[in-house]
Amino acid sequence: MRVAIAGAGAVGRSIAQELVQDGHQVMLIERDRAHFDPNSVEQAEWVQADACELSSLEDAGMQLCDVVIAATGDDKVNLVVSLLAKTEFAVRRVIARVNDPTNEWLFTESWGVDVAVSTPRLLAAMVEESVTIGDVVRLLTLRQGQANLVEITLDESTPFAGRAVSELTLPRDAALVTILRGGRVIVPQPDDTLEGGDELLFVTTAAVEQEIKSALGY
Q1: Would the pTM count as exceeding 0.90?
Q2: Which of 14, 54, 60, 71 is deepest in the core (most CB within 10 A)?
Q3: Beta strand 174-181 with 45-48: parallel, antiparallel or unpaired?
Q4: 124 φ, ψ to 5°?
Q5: pLDDT at 141 over 90
Q6: Are the C-beta atoms of 68 and 85 separated by less than 8 Å?
Q7: 126 pLDDT exceeds 60?
Q8: Residue-wise over 83-97: b if at least 16 C-beta within 10 A, else e?
Q9: Average pLDDT over residues 156-183
């Protein structure tokens, strides 16, 4: 894929490094000369420009990109970049970094955002996930809030130990997508059994999160 990243600070460069290693074509757009360092990610294309200016994005070839990542440290800039990418260049997938969790409500389809990533929220979720048994921990919001990735950890004495995944009675708008067990990542099949200590990851709507909890006996 061809991916444009607005913002070549530490976050933008790290994302670029990962993507070029996976074989993607990456373009880094950075306005600040202090952050413009092509030697830091030599395989990427570097453009020194203001990502909030339509003409600059046209010159950079934004219209040729499959994915745009708004990764600056300024939420206002990330929103503008997202909106331009979606409305002016019809970019298929737009991912935006949320720096201030209080601004997360703005990062929706109305601003062209397909996926909003809030680092503070993710870190808080990881803390909750590490100490919470039997509670629903929201890890990620998908599709402008239409669905969430949530996690529930089974306690060691769970009555579901030894029972098959097919025996779980889940609400309609919930799907068990992964079981984390020790160092293993298990894509659950109907005959797979659950164990105490399993971390269960579901894709679900917010409306039925508590129903998932009830289905697991919490």
Answers
A1: no
A2: 71
A3: unpaired
A4: -65, -40
A5: no
A6: yes
A7: no
A8: bbbbeebebeebbbb
A9: 91
Write the pLDDT tens digit of every residue in 63-83.
999 999 999 999 999 999 999
Torsion of CA 63, 119, 199, 144, to 10 degrees: -50
Tokens standing for residue 123: 């870190």
Length of the chain: 218
Contact 80, 61 (CB under 8 A): no
Q: CB-based contacts of 32: which residues, under 8 Å, 6+ apart?
A: none
d(CA 194, CA 165): 7
- Per-residue H/E/C for the chain: CEEEEECCCHHHHHHHHHHHHCCCEEEEEECCHHHCCHHHHCCCEEEECCCCCHHHHHHHCHHHCCEEEECCCCHHHHHHHHHHHHHCCCCCEEEEEECCHHHHHHCCHHHCCCEEEEHHHHHHHHHHHHHCCCCCEEEEEEHHHCEEEEEEECCCCCCCECCEHHHCCCCCCEEEEEEEECCEEECCCCCCEECCCCEEEEEECHHHHHHHHHHCCC
d(CA 187, CA 184): 10
Q: Which two tokens stand for residue 79?
A: 């929103």
Q: What is the mean pLDDT of the chain?
A: 89
